[in-house]
Amino acid sequence: LYICFRTVEPLEYYRRFLKENCRPDGRELGEFRATTHFFSSGSITTADGSALVKLGNTTVICGVKAELAPPAADSANKGYIVPNVELPSLCAERFRSGPPGEEAQAASQFIADVIENSQMIVKEDLCIANGKLAWVLYCDIICLDYDGNLLDASVFALLAALKNVQLPSVVINEETGLSEVNLKQKTPLIIRKHPVATSFAIFDDTLLIVDPTAEEEDLATGTVTIVTDEEGRLCSIHKPGGSPLTGAKLQDCITRAITRHKEVKKLIDKVIKSITPK
């Protein structure tokens, strides 16, 4: 009977649980899903850095490829960071093969904004020789299994993958003008900030639940993602339409995101320790 009711009236089905301050999967409204296999660094051996993140059933893998290129004329002392989020048809029925859809493009732009606003990587640190040579970091984030909250998982995967990157030493030969790469001498990428995303779904214009599943996102009247760093600084607010939030509700989201960051930071520190060369 309940299965039939859930299929015919999914929103009303959810409301019955929400009235009791819980969800059909047993979680409280402010409870995150289990983060089993949270970080698995070095997942892609052909990449310069990689990580696998599993947030509930949502599974995301990130691979970072580092290449050399001349810097842009108007940014002679800066390198490049090029993020790309892919939502292939294999991760959920709602996605189709072919060019990136609107959701994938929006996610790619979100990641680009997080990188820029948080200053997790300062582009000047990627410059090797002013006006001559710089690193380009291609960050490919691919969703393997989609069950909501793609943005939180993507930011986690990106951060873990970047922490996994070791860049070889590069110098420019003054006589030939060519770059010389020393693969035996590598140094970790400089990560200056550790942004963490915390997403909320808004039900019936007022009720907030954290870490929504795909079903919860579909039934919600809006979503909002808050990105903070380890200093409690607000890096980004992503609110793609939907129900408006009052100032008090938004502040509540920010406060909870800062608390969430402290929890995630313990896991991040554990990852960093595990991937630091002995």
TrEMBL record:
<protein>
    <recommendedName>
        <fullName>Exosome complex component RRP43</fullName>
    </recommendedName>
</protein>
<keyword id="KW-0698">rRNA processing</keyword>
<keyword id="KW-0694">RNA-binding</keyword>
<dbReference type="Pfam" id="PF01138">
    <property type="entry name" value="RNase_PH"/>
</dbReference>
<dbReference type="GO" id="GO:0034476">
    <property type="term" value="P:U5 snRNA 3'-end processing"/>
</dbReference>
<feature type="domain" description="Exoribonuclease phosphorolytic">
    <location>
        <begin position="195"/>
        <end position="258"/>
    </location>
</feature>
<comment type="similarity">
    <text>Belongs to the RNase PH family.</text>
</comment>
<dbReference type="Pfam" id="PF03725">
    <property type="entry name" value="RNase_PH_C"/>
</dbReference>
<feature type="domain" description="Exoribonuclease phosphorolytic">
    <location>
        <begin position="39"/>
        <end position="168"/>
    </location>
</feature>
<dbReference type="GO" id="GO:0000467">
    <property type="term" value="P:exonucleolytic trimming to generate mature 3'-end of 5.8S rRNA from tricistronic rRNA transcript (SSU-rRNA, 5.8S rRNA, LSU-rRNA)"/>
</dbReference>
<dbReference type="InterPro" id="IPR027408">
    <property type="entry name" value="PNPase/RNase_PH_dom_sf"/>
</dbReference>
<dbReference type="InterPro" id="IPR033196">
    <property type="entry name" value="Rrp43"/>
</dbReference>
<keyword id="KW-0539">Nucleus</keyword>
<dbReference type="GO" id="GO:0000177">
    <property type="term" value="C:cytoplasmic exosome (RNase complex)"/>
</dbReference>
<keyword id="KW-0007">Acetylation</keyword>
<dbReference type="GO" id="GO:0000176">
    <property type="term" value="C:nuclear exosome (RNase complex)"/>
</dbReference>
<dbReference type="GO" id="GO:0005730">
    <property type="term" value="C:nucleolus"/>
</dbReference>
<dbReference type="GO" id="GO:0071038">
    <property type="term" value="P:TRAMP-dependent tRNA surveillance pathway"/>
</dbReference>
<keyword id="KW-0271">Exosome</keyword>
<keyword id="KW-0963">Cytoplasm</keyword>
<dbReference type="InterPro" id="IPR050590">
    <property type="entry name" value="Exosome_comp_Rrp42_subfam"/>
</dbReference>
<dbReference type="GO" id="GO:0034475">
    <property type="term" value="P:U4 snRNA 3'-end processing"/>
</dbReference>
<dbReference type="InterPro" id="IPR036345">
    <property type="entry name" value="ExoRNase_PH_dom2_sf"/>
</dbReference>
<dbReference type="GO" id="GO:0034473">
    <property type="term" value="P:U1 snRNA 3'-end processing"/>
</dbReference>
<dbReference type="GO" id="GO:0071028">
    <property type="term" value="P:nuclear mRNA surveillance"/>
</dbReference>
<dbReference type="InterPro" id="IPR015847">
    <property type="entry name" value="ExoRNase_PH_dom2"/>
</dbReference>
<dbReference type="GO" id="GO:0016075">
    <property type="term" value="P:rRNA catabolic process"/>
</dbReference>
<dbReference type="InterPro" id="IPR020568">
    <property type="entry name" value="Ribosomal_Su5_D2-typ_SF"/>
</dbReference>
<dbReference type="InterPro" id="IPR001247">
    <property type="entry name" value="ExoRNase_PH_dom1"/>
</dbReference>
<dbReference type="GO" id="GO:0071035">
    <property type="term" value="P:nuclear polyadenylation-dependent rRNA catabolic process"/>
</dbReference>
<dbReference type="GO" id="GO:0035925">
    <property type="term" value="F:mRNA 3'-UTR AU-rich region binding"/>
</dbReference>
